[in-house]
Amino acid sequence: MTRPMIEVQDLVRRYGDTAVVDGVSLRLPERAFVSVIGANGAGKSSLLSMVARLLPASAGRALVAGLDVAATPGDVLARRLGILRQDNGVAARVTIRDLVAFGRYPHSRGRLGPADHAAIADALRFLDLEPLADRFLDEVSGGQRQRAFIAMVLAQDTDCILLDEPLNNLDMRHAAAMMALLRRAVDERGRTIVAVLHDVNFASCYSDLIVAMRDGKVVAVGPPDEIVTPAVLREVYGIDVEVVTVRGYRTVFFYR
Amino acid sequence: MPAVRDLSARPGPGWVLALLALAAAAAVLAYMTVGANGRWGFVLPFRGTRVASMLLVGCAVATATVLFQTVSGNRILTPAIMGFDELYRLIQTGLVFGFGAGGFGDPRLRFLAETGAMVLFALLLYRGLLDRGGHGLHRLLLVGVVCGVFFRSLSQFLQRMIDPNQFVVLQSGLFASFNTVRPELLALAALVVLAACLAVRRLVPRLDVLLLGRDCAVALGVDHRRTLTQVLVLVAVLVSVSTALVGPVTFLGLLVANLAYRVMPTYRHAFVLPAAALVTAVTLVGGQLVLERVFALNAALSIVVEFLGGLTLLVLLARRARA
Questions:
Q1: Which end of chain A is more exposed for a tag (fewer CB within 10 A), N or C?
Q2: For residue B138, is pLDDT > 80?
Q3: For residue range A133-177, what is the model confidence (pLDDT) as tens digits?
Q4: Structural domains of chain A, ranges and CATH numbers in brackets
Q5: B212 at interface of A, judged by CB pairs closer than 8 A
Q6: Are B220 and A78 in contact (CB under 8 A)?
Q7: Entry pTM
Q8: How far is B283 from chain A (nearest CA, A)?
Q9: Chain A contacts of B7, Cβ < 8 Å?
Q10: H or E, element range at A107
């Protein structure tokens, strides 16, 4: 493992007496696609939110590109780390182009220069949003909205991107396209992407590394070959599954 | 696929702003001249004071409302609904109760003391509430209504115990009316509003980012807590100015802010804020003109304002419920 892009040391988040994240330590490499899997309430989103400084940690610390997220000024961190959570409501009517332009705020402070316009155009092209760029956000489908938000995070031009359930609201076709696109962002642009995923099969087919969580703790970390096994998945989700290898990818059958 | 809206078909934000400025100028001109049958040397300064106070109050109310709606992330809440002007009236009453109507001597000194107390209490009360990005509209609305009723009951309780002479002094400041503007406060109020507007200008890029919600704003590097504090201070100051000048008219903000969002073809605060101020100027000056000339001063402005503001709130709530 090269220099870690994200380093988490004994991170804890408590609500009253219950710890939703209970002493997590991780070292995630740069230029990798990392998936975080686990049952509902396993602490995946809380972990991501703490790394993203959206939620203060009860104990422990998180470093992104060597910067302590709790101590680094927000605007400095915003040029290294991009985040997208679920359900993003916008309180005003904005077009997709406006939204993507917001991604340039850490660099432009609201005054867009030539470099910003180039980055916006590039992000729109990368997500195939050019024909929709001047549509209002409340006039497009859920999948297109999701893509617009991803474009905003990509326009932010950060080394590291955290995504909380990027496949939410996407059908089969758009989910696969989204994963292929994120994979390209890692391979072609050298980004590090950490995504919370509910679909183990997508995690298995596209990730370099999978982090499996249960009850606020990390159960296992490793490449898909080590994680997508009946034994590990029984520990993570508490059900028995069948793992089938299709075209070299380990996939899970659990439907009945 | 629905037809893509042709953006060029609508006038740009600059044009809309120019039209609004024209309408405001027309309203001011009409107010200054219609039915003037006295000497101009008396009419102009007399009406000029009122127009100046209306423009000031309009700017303060509109700016405070748009700022508050941006940090609270929705367009139904206003400082008035959250109990801001009731809080200001409680502070006014409390100061008269504690120090007497003549306690501060100079009304300007009292105004500054009231504004200072207002800023302090507004921060204590509302910052925690909004800090975690709100907790849903209904909870905020409920908190606001409860706060408003609580502050009002407290000030009514204090007013009952106040010396009757001092109560008369206090009462003159508690009703919304442009007929009893206190000219001694006008210059100071103008200065305060100007300073607040300059401070708002510096916040404008951050305000735009805050429209994406707390999480996105933090992700884009905006110091959410600091910005929220600055905005609440400005809102408290602006509400104090308008309430001190003419009494509670901040409910008007709901109406004019939503009108401004409707007419402005952009989300950007650099355009929305002046538009809201101009819409308020048109509404206030025009409304006062109708009040004076048509109803011959038989209706109070506060009744008109609360009637229209209340109607707007109901319409907005009903539309939100259906959506």
A1: C
A2: no
A3: 888 888 888 888 888 898 999 888 888 999 998 888 788 888 898
A4: 1-80+161-168+190-256 (3.40.50.300), 83-157 (no CATH)
A5: yes
A6: yes
A7: 0.84
A8: 23
A9: 134
A10: helix A105-108
